[in-house]
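Hey, I was hoping to borrow your eyes for a little while. I've been staring at a protein lately and its backbone has me curious. You're getting the sequence in one-letter code plus the fold written as tokens. Would you mind checking whether the tokens look sensible for this chain? Here's the protein in full, and shout if anything looks odd to you:
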Amino acid sequence: MNRHEISSGAANDHELGWHGGFDILCASLSLHACVFSSVWFLLDGNEVVFSTGKSSAKGRNLLRDSHVMISVDDEQPPFAFVLIDGMAAVEELSPQELLPLAIRIARRYVAPGQTDAYGKRNAVEGELLVRVPLTKVIARKGIAD
């Protein structure tokens, strides 16, 4: 049972134990509170990438305060988790610009024949693209070993 802290360098889903599981985002509400919600995400190089609606609670809070914490939990034995603490870069892209990333994100969560449909559903006007660099990551895999 090792604890790994990654300060820089390339990482991939397998190294971090990201095979699915719960993906939870904590976006700041105020100095002492945050909103928790599930997100579909993609590991793109050294960044976690996801999208969210600009007018959603996540979107509004991220535009106000870009500090986030993300927890990814693999519930399959021998169990694993990844915690990410970082500053999000938030941008509003056109649906055409967002579509390729939305399709890539959907590939992690839906059946192969449905990825394009989910990508189109999520690449709409008012959707924000969020990138969180892997600057502070704590990962633990093989918890039950």
The helical segments are 13-16, 57-64, 95-107, 115-122. Strands lie at 4-6, 22-30, 33-38, 42-44, 47-53, 67-74, 80-87, 89-92, 127-133, 137-141.
